[in-house]
Specification:
Number of domains: 2
Structural class: alpha/beta
CATH topology of the largest domain: Aspartate Aminotransferase, domain 2
Number of helices: 11
Shape: globular
Number of strands: 16
CATH architecture of the largest domain: 3-Layer(aba) Sandwich
Strand content: 15-25%
Radius of gyration: 21 Å
Order of helices and strands: HHEHEHEEEEHEEEEEHHHEEEHEHEH
CATH superfamily of the largest domain: Type I PLP-dependent aspartate aminotransferase-like (Major domain)
């Protein structure tokens, strides 16, 4: 049996919507793009949405719109997909990495005070795996220190804390619609904000620095070609129309994993015991117990792959990435980041995942874990 880590869901209605745009005269910057933006804003109960060509572009534009400049410091977790660090580096700003809560894989307010310096200008809040970070508390801290805030909600569309959706707490939120996300536009992303001024600037920056409704050949500031086509927006609009159905279904799949694995003494499941929160389940992460090493985890990943099960080793800490060698950054105590990153394994999760596939994944994982545990016990006895 082959089980991919992720798989996009494309329906006949999705295809028909894309074909309709192809038969129209508006392939970009047309009515479907505006309709998708309005639908995103309405779903999030936020004022403005600006679609762009990727979540990484969204993060970069958020920093630019908030006037983060060369040498400014941006606080963010090292345990995150590299896109948010790349966005900080693209603006020649300085990443300041903080640790995570091992129960949620997200940054916490308690790590922030020690990270702030006179050069700090912003905090980037990341909602990893669809787990909502305590954004309200972090934003409150940021405002008390006159810092801008960005939410990287690229993995967490639909997640909530106290009934408010991720991406809507900070000055600007960033979303992503890559094929492994809950909804997809192929490639694509979006920025959301409650500020008319920021929305106008984000829209201009994404379109070569042109202002909406202005002279096409007048550029108010240097910008980028980060537009998202109406073709992509048509797909996104259709997928967004069933987002609640997708969220409920993925929640049910996550519960099946939990029921199957929670009694296993070799691992811990995430997502249990959350209060006032809704998880959007981008993937299903499990944490190997602390007697497993990174080498053990990598060998388990390889064995699962050999059996046909694709899993993810998310995330290698950003501060250890080769891309940062020779670059200036700061970090404090990252004990949990290092520990979690070496033992975490993300299991397949996608809309079409079947019960027999979940059983195959869990059975294969438990078999390999049992072999690994027995091997280590024998080795310890001999030693």
């Amino acid at each position: 049996m082959k089980v991919p880590l992720a798989k996009p869901e494309i329906t006949e209605k999705d295809i028909a919507a894309v074909v309709a745009v192809l038969r129209s005269t508006h392939l970009s910057q047309g009515p479907v793009m505006r309709e998708f933006e309005e639908a995103l804003a309405a779903y999030l109960n936020f004022s403005y949405a600006v679609v762009v060509n990727s979540g990484t572009s969204a993060l970069q534009l958020a920093l630019r719109a908030l006037d983060i400049k060369e040498g400014d410091e941006v606080i963010l977790p090292s345990f995150s997909f590299m896109a948010v660090t790349n966005a900080v580096l693209s603006e020649k700003a300085v990443p300041v990495f903080v640790d995570i809560d091992p129960k949620t894989c997200n940054m916490t307010p308690s790590t922030l005070e020690a990270a702030v310096s006179r050069k700090t200008r912003a905090i980037a809040i990341v909602h990893s795996f669809g787990f909502p970070a305590p954004a309200a508390e972090i934003v409150e801290f940021a405002r008390s220190h006159s810092l801008a805030t960005i939410e990287d909600a690229c993995e967490s569309l639909g997640s909530e804390f106290n009934g408010r959706k991720s991406g809507t707490f900070a000055d600007i939120g960033a979303l992503a619609f890559y094929p492994n996300k809950l909804i997809t536009t192929g490639e694509g992303g979006a920025l959301v904000t409650d500020s008319a001024r920021l929305a106008a600037r984000l829209r201009a920056l994404s379109n070569q620095g042109r202002q909406l409704g202005g002279n096409w050949f007048q550029h108010v500031e240097p910008g980028f070609s980060y537009r998202l086509s109406d073709i992509s927006c048509a797909l996104g609009l259709q997928q967004l129309s069933r987002i609640e159905q997708i969220l409920r279904h993925r929640e049910a799949l996550a519960r099946k994993y939990e029921l199957r694995l929670r009694s296993n003494v070799n691992l811990t499941c995430f997502g249990t015991g959350w209060k006032h929160a809704r998880i959007s389940w981008f993937t299903y992460p499990i944490l190997l117990n602390d007697n497993f090493t990174r080498q053990d985890r990598d060998e388990i990943w390889g064995e699962l792959r050999r059996l046909g099960v694709e899993t993810g080793r998310y995330f290698a800490p950003a501060h250890l990435q080769p891309a940062l060698r020779g670059l200036h950054f700061r970090c404090g105590d990252l004990t949990h980041t290092l520990s979690i990153s070496e033992r975490i394994l993300c299991l397949p999760l996608f809309n079409a995942l079947q019960d027999e596939q979940i059983e195959f994944v869990c059975g294969s994982l438990e078999h390999i874990l049992g072999q690994s545990a027995a091997h280590r016990a024998t080795h310890a006895a001999v030693s």
